[in-house]
Structure formats: structure tokens, C-alpha cells
Write a structure and sequence with these properties.
It is a single chain. This protein is of the alpha/beta class. The protein folds into two domains: 194 residues, D-Maltodextrin-Binding Protein, domain 2, CATH 3.40.190.150; 121 residues, 3-Layer(aba) Sandwich (D-Maltodextrin-Binding Protein, domain 2). It has ten helices and 15 strands. A six-stranded mixed beta sheet has the order 6-5-7-14-8-15, sandwiched between helices. The chain has a three-stranded antiparallel beta sheet with strand order 12-9-13, sandwiched between helices. Helix 1 crosses helix 8. It starts with 8 loop residues before the first strand and ends in a 5-residue tail after the last helix.
């Protein structure tokens, strides 16, 4: 696959031969702002099925960008192969800013677990992280532990490989392996395909734990069918204010990798990348946008293209090392 700057003057960018802005003379270089004014619909490809956390962020972002650009922004769901089907489509798209990818950090794993028709590290121009999709460790309400710290103590008392955790995808496995490696415990991984089955089994007590986005698990937590043992987040969230973060429980360090990021095809002109990043930053900074994110358990994020590229490349390297150490393969 191709793992906020406040500037004042306008920079001209051509899209399909049309002028998108004018440079205001007399402004310092540090006060220039790139301008993206699309002349046809822009497509945001979501490489997952409708209804999940990434799809929710994409639709919220598309609506806000439509208002900013005065142009239609379409959502194109292309699920399959852990996000690689949709990502492949974007990797082949014209590098002109009209086809973008909105994906989660877990898609960086595909570079280490699949034979892909592109180089993940080189196939995309990372633009920015739009949001952090908060993940939660979920358990049956009957599990004799009130938080993840309590679960860790339970495993230490019972011994290794007595408790189980549902693993619906490679990204989930990588996250829980890192958490349990840091905690110094061993839990049996139970592979699943899809979230509905494993959540039902956790609720019934057939599997002890799982990991899910808050967006997906929230209704079951509120209904009392699941409980949250902790949040993989930099801070608590309004929809689950009583649930502590893993950092608060002394087992943090994974929060920065839970982003939902915007990518363009490699070769997209830097001025276009900068312009889109600045526009995304503008809408993400709006209180109403952040309030909507909070409704489904997500937090605002950000970063310049350079910062997000470093973040993405760092995750690619780190996840590759972890995959090799664990001997992971696609289940």
C-alpha cells in the first residue's frame, strides 16, 4: 500500500489546469497559506465497511470539507483484506488531490503480513491524522476484574495461558501483544473473523477479553452486556467518563498509534498536500466537529504532513519489528 499551520497569504495551485488561488504579494513566506479549491467532487476512500469508527470519522470529515470547499465530497467504502483493497485503489489513483484515503493505523501492518502490489512506505503521501479512534479493552460483566490492572493481577495469580482474548484482526493482536508484553503476562489468543461473533462470546463469558473501538462497543457497554477495563487513549472520554486510561493504570504507551489518518497517492504535489492538511486542521479545530467526534468516543488529532509522515514511518518500522518477533501471519 502507498503505515496546523496558521498561514495568511494564498498560494496558487492548479487542479486540472484551473487556478485555485492567488498569491498575495507583500506577505512574508511564513504567513503563506496553501489553498485547495476543487472543481469537481473529491472522493474519500474508506477501506472498511460502513458503520464503523473510521467510516463515522470519514462522513463527519466529508460533510465539513464540503462546506469549506463548496464541492461534493463522496465516501467510497472499499472493504477487504484488512484495508488493503481500498488502499490499493488509492495507491493507483491520480496524484491530484481528488482521491484520498482515510484509514486507521492498523493498515500499516499489511506491509509485513501480506504480499501487496505496492510498497506501503512509498505508495502514499501522508497528510495528517484527523482523529484518534479510542480503543477499549472489553470483558464480560461477570469477569472478576474491574479494570485491566485487576485482570493482570488475576492472570498473575492463576498462571499463564489460563485466560483468553478474542483477536478479530492483526492490528488488534499487535496491540494486545504489546500491552501484555509490557505487563509481563501471557493470555491465549482466540482468532475471530468479524466483531459481532467475538462480542457475543465475550458477553456470554466464552472468551474473557477483547479489544474494540469505543464506537463499535459503546452500545453494548451502555446496555450492560460488556464492560470496559480501560481505554487506549491519552485522556478519558465523555461517553465513558468512569473508565480510566491504561496510562492511569500504569500500562500506557500505546495511545499515539491509534490514529485515523488522511493519505493521498504518492506523487501528489506538496502544495496540494499542504493545502488539504490545513483545511482538515481548520475543520478539526471547530468545537462542533470535536463535539461530534466525542459522541462516538473519538478525539481530535492533527499534525503537519512532515509530522504525520514521521509518525507513519515510525509505526511501520515498529510494527515490522513486533511482527517478526511474534512470528505473526494472517490468520
Amino acid at each position: 500500500m502507498r503505515k496546523l499551520i496558521a498561514l495568511c497569504a494564498a498560494l496558487a495551485i492548479g487542479f486540472g489546469g484551473s487556478a485555485l488561488g492567488q498569491v498575495k504579494e507583500g506577505q512574508g513566506k511564513e504567513s503563506q497559506r496553501a489553498v485547495f479549491r476543487p472543481t469537481k467532487p473529491v472522493t474519500i476512500v474508506v477501506p472498511y465497511s460502513p458503520g464503523g469508527g473510521t467510516d463515522s470519522v470519514a462522513r463527519l470529515l466529508a460533510k465539513a470539507l464540503e462546506e469549506l470547499w463548496g464541492q461534493t465530497v463522496l465516501i467510497d467504502n472499499r472493504p477487504g483484506a484488512n484495508g488493503s483493497v481500498g488502499a490499493a485503489f488509492v495507491a493507483r489513483a491520480a496524484p491530484d488531490g481528488y482521491t484520498l484515503l482515510l484509514s486507521v493505523s492498523g493498515f500499516a501492518l499489511n506491509a509485513h503480513l501480506m504480499k501487496l502490489p505496492y510498497d506501503t512506505a512509498m505508495a502514499f503521501a501522508p497528510i495528517t491524522a484527523a482523529a484518534n479512534l479510542v480503543a477499549t479493552i472489553i470483558a464480560s460483566p461477570t469477569l472478576p476484574a474491574g479494570d485491566l490492572r485487576g485482570f493482570i493481577e488475576l492472570v498473575r495469580k492463576e498462571g499463564p495461558d489460563k485466560r483468553t482474548i478474542a483477536i478479530p484482526d492483526p492490528g488488534s493482536r499487535l496491540t494486545v501483544e504489546r500491552i501484555f508484553e509490557k505487563a509481563g503476562i501471557k493470555v491465549v489468543n482466540v482468532p475471530y473473523k468479524g466483531g459481532a461473533a467475538f462480542m457475543g462470546d465475550i458477553s456470554a463469558g466464552r472468551v474473557d477479553l477483547g479489544i474494540s473501538s469505543v464506537t463499535t462497543a459503546l452500545s453494548l457497554i451502555r446496555a450492560g452486556h460488556l464492560k470496559s477495563l480501560g481505554l487506549v487513549s491519552t485522556e478519558r472520554i465523555g461517553v465513558l467518563p468512569q473508565v480510566s486510561t491504561l496510562e492511569e493504570q500504569g500500562i500506557g504507551g500505546f495511545e499515539r498509534d491509534s490514529w485515523c489518518g488522511v493519505f493521498a497517492p504518492a506523487g501528489t504535489p506538496p502544495a496540494i498536500v499542504d493545502a488539504i492538511q490545513q483545511d482538515v486542521a481548520t475543520v478539526v479545530a471547530r468545537p462542533e466537529f470535536q463535539a461530534r467526534l466525542a459522541e462516538f468516543g473519538a478525539l481530535p488529532s492533527g499534525g503537519t504532513p512532515a509530522e504525520f509522515t514521521a509518525r507513519f514511518q515510525g509505526l511501520l518500522k515498529e510494527s515490522g519489528e513486533m511482527v517478526r518477533r511474534l512470528g505473526m501471519t494472517i490468520e
